[in-house]
Amino acid sequence: MHRGFFVVLLLSLSASANAQFDIATELKTTEVEPGIYMIEGADGFSGGTVGLLVGEERIVLIDDFVEPLSGTLLKTAGKVAGRPVDFVINTHVHGDHIGGNATLAHHGATVVAHDNIRERMLADEKTDPDGLPILTFSDSVTFHLNGMTAHVLHVAEAHTDGDAIIHFPEQNVIHAGDILFNHIFPFIDLDNGGTVDGFIAAQKKLVEMADDNTKIIAGHGPLGSRSDLERNLQVLVDSQSKVKALVDKGMSADEVVAANPLAEFHEGWNWAFITTERMTRTLYRDLTE
Fold first, then answer.
1. Do 188 and 286 contact (CB within 8 A), yes or no?
2. Beta carbons of 61 and 50 less than 8 angstroms apart
3. For residue 31, which of 23, 39, 42 has the smallest C-alpha distance?
4. Dist. CA 261–CA 206, nearest whole Å
5. Is residue 129 part of a domain?
6. In the chain, what is the straight-line distance between the N-terminal and C-terminal CA atoms, in Å?
7. Residue ranges in the chain modelled with pLDDT below 70
8. Is residue 262 part of a domain?
């Protein structure tokens, strides 16, 4: 489940001599547009990139890092906003995005998420019940606050089965959650309801929502643009096509890996958690199961 993903992620990162896997002690805050910030680890791993919506009416976080950083995140958000967080929107169930739920809830925040996130958290015996979403939605929910509109939209069977993207149309900003791993191979969690076709469909939806000036907060990686998103989408589409051509020849998973169909993407897209081999095996499994 989601905690298992976090453990595997850290183990994978620790296996790479060039990877920074220590939990961050400091956070970096960047104002994307007036009233909308992105928060990330300044000196180590923090989890997925957090969004922060600040205004005179309410304070909203999008995701909340891993649990050890929840106190630091509270302080950072409070310093920027000047008062406590009112809402936390979870983009999906992984522990590097929802690890701070219970801490934020203890400090008065209301956790909002897709129905499937709550169901998967309930099924995990290690879940702190205080961190459960108490407001859930099936397709979408819209926040009207601070003179802004935030459309929270479910994208089905993509990174997981409970993904949400958040669109601020007036500010031309999108928080993509883990529908965007910017310029690295994406993690598509087949064991938690994700699919490659669903991930591609979700990225296509983001492309349709964006224009050349849209700023896209990635779940992992730097702040992106529509052209970044299109590049990531094309790499995934091409990768799926290359693996499918070998699957159609009746090759086994090991044979496909040995053929190295994603070789041209290795230098730019391989990383410690989703290596070229793991991306190949994910595509193979998705095509054959």
1. yes
2. yes
3. 39
4. 27
5. yes
6. 20
7. 1-21
8. no
Tokens, residue 278 = 């793991």
Q: For position 252, what pLDDT does the model report? A: 98
SS3 content of the chain, % helix, strand, coil (to 5): 40, 20, 35
H-run or E-run covering 130: none
Tokens representing 186 are: 């994406």
Whether residue 120 is contained in a domain is answered as yes
- Let me know if residue 142 belongs to a domain: yes
Give pLDDT, residue 5.
45
Q: Indicate the pairing of strand 135-137 with strand 140-145.
A: unpaired
Dist. CA 44–CA 183, nearest whole Å: 19
CA distance 242 to 16: 27
Query: Are the beta carbons of 202 and 237 closer than 8 angstroms?
Result: no
Query: What angle do the packed helices 276-288 and 226-247 form, to 10 degrees?
Result: 60
Q: What is the CATH number of the domain that holds 204?
A: 3.60.15.10
Listed in sequence order, the DSSP H helices in the chain are: 2-14, 70-81, 95-98, 101-106, 115-123, 196-209, 226-247, 253-259, 266-269, 276-288
Q: By residue range, what is the domain housing residue 140?
A: 2-225
Cβ contact 148:171 at 8 Å: yes
The two structure tokens encoding residue 285: 């499994």
Question: How far apart (Å, rounded) are the C-alpha atoms in residues 242 and 170?
Answer: 39
Number of domains in the chain: 1
Q: What is the pTM of this model?
A: 0.93
Strand order in the sheet with 87-89: 27-33, 36-41, 50-53, 60-62, 87-89, 110-114, 135-137
pLDDT of residue 174: 98
Query: Is the CB of residue 159 less than 8 Å from the CB of residue 188?
Result: yes
CA angle, residues 21, 22, 28, in degrees to nearest 5: 100
Half-sphere exposure for 201 (CA within 13 Å, toward CB)? 12
